[in-house]
């Protein structure tokens, strides 16, 4: 496991100076580095995840098997120096010093529904681009963005109302219950959806009751340690700025 939350096979990871990483997490202790240049690059570790080292050993697992934990790894180089293993995306200083988003960990498991943003202010509504067909009053389509890859050409729009139905309704309700438990802005949004008859009051009440019993504070607080959060206004400004930047290129 990388200090930035990435997981990778050990033979694909890159070694990095373990002393600099240890100094970052032991901020109240000053280590004696053999090279003074090491002190000048300590700032690149400021965006590392705070729960990289977990005293309670509550690490993620592979396929929910407690015997297959994803752990921090250390190797010895040819000179006998301990080196911490980094993923291929975070072993260079040019990539490490950037700001990184650290979402909070999920309780009980790490599975997520296919569309986790159905209870949010901005909802991505993806649709596959199809050939234009002429009709009585229209022969064109409207498109905000188009992505092309080997899998085909896709387009999506941003909507304000989600859909909590479908095959993953149980997982969507579980994710929404956790969101209602921790975020007051989504509570207000759900209340507005009830007023506009987008969501039934019984369904909202069932999600709130489930969140109170399934996600206790003692369980949630260690999971959000070190996670980042973006305010709603910052998110809207970011969504507005990204398309403008794309047009510049």
Please render the helix and strand layout as text.
Blueprint: E1 14-17, H1 18-25, H2 37-40, E2 61-62, E3 65-69, E4 74-76, E5 82-86, H3 93-96, E6 123-128, E7 146-149, E8 152-159, H4 169-182, H5 184-195, H6 201-214, H7 217-220, H8 232-248
Antiparallel strand pairs: 1-5, 2-3, 4-5, 6-8, 7-8
Helix pairs in contact: 4-5, 4-6
List keywords for this structure.
single chain; 249 residues; 2 domains; three-stranded antiparallel sheet; 31% helix; 15% strand; disordered C terminus
What's the quick description here?
The protein is of the alpha+beta class. Helix content is 31%, strand content 15%.
Physical arrangement of strands within the biggest beta sheet: 1-5-4
How do the helices and strands follow one another from N- to C-terminus? EHHEEEEHEEEHHHHH
Largest sheet: 3 strands, antiparallel
Radius of gyration: 23 Å
Name the structural class.
Answer: alpha+beta
Number of DSSP strands? 8
Tell me the strand percentage band: 5-15%
Shape: globular
Distance between the termini: 35 Å
Total discrete domains: 2
Give the uncertain stretches in residue-range form.
241-249
Work out the helix count: 8
Could you estimate the helical fraction of the residues in percent?
A: 25-40%
Mean pLDDT: 78
Could you please describe the fold and organization of this structure?
With 249 residues, the chain is α+β, with helices and mostly antiparallel strands. It folds into 2 domains: 10-96, no CATH class; 123-131 and 142-240, no CATH class. The protein has 8 helices and 8 strands; from the N terminus they run βααββββαβββααααα. It has helices at 18-25, 37-40, 93-96, 169-182, 184-195, 201-214, 217-220, 232-248; strands at residues 14-17, 61-62, 65-69, 74-76, 82-86, 123-128, 146-149, 152-159. The strands form 3 sheets. It has a 3-stranded antiparallel β-sheet with strand order 1-5-4. Helix 4 (169-182) packs across helix 5 (184-195) and helix 4 (169-182) crosses helix 6 (201-214). The chain is globular. The model is unreliable at 241-249 (pLDDT under 50).
């Amino acid at each position: 496991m990388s200090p930035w939350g990435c997981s990778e096979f050990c033979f694909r990871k890159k070694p990095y100076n373990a002393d600099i990483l240890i100094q970052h997490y032991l901020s109240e202790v000053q280590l004696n580095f053999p090279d003074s240049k090491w002190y000048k690059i300590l700032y690149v570790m400021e965006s590392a995840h705070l729960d990289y080292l977990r005293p309670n050993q509550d690490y993620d697992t592979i396929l929910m098997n407690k015997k297959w934990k994803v752990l921090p790894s250390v190797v010895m180089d040819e000179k006998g120096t301990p080196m911490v293993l980094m993923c291929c995306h975070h072993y260079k200083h040019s990539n490490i010093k950037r700001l990184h988003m650290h979402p909070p960990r999920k309780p009980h498991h790490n599975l997520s529904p296919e569309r986790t943003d159905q209870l949010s202010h901005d909802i991505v509504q993806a649709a596959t681009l199809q050939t234009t067909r002429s009709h009585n009053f229209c022969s064109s389509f409207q498109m905000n963005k188009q992505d092309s890859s080997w899998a085909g050409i896709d387009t999506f729009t941003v909507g304000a109302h989600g859909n909590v139905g479908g095959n993953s309704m149980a997982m969507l309700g579980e994710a929404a219950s956790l969101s209602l438990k921790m975020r007051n802005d989504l509570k207000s949004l759900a209340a507005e959806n009830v007023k506009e008859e987008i969501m039934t009051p019984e369904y909202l009440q069932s999600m709130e009751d489930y969140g109170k019993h399934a996600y206790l504070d003692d369980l949630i607080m260690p999971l959000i340690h070190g996670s980042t959060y973006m305010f709603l206004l910052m998110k809207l400004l970011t969504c507005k700025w990204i398309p403008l930047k794309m047009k510049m290129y």
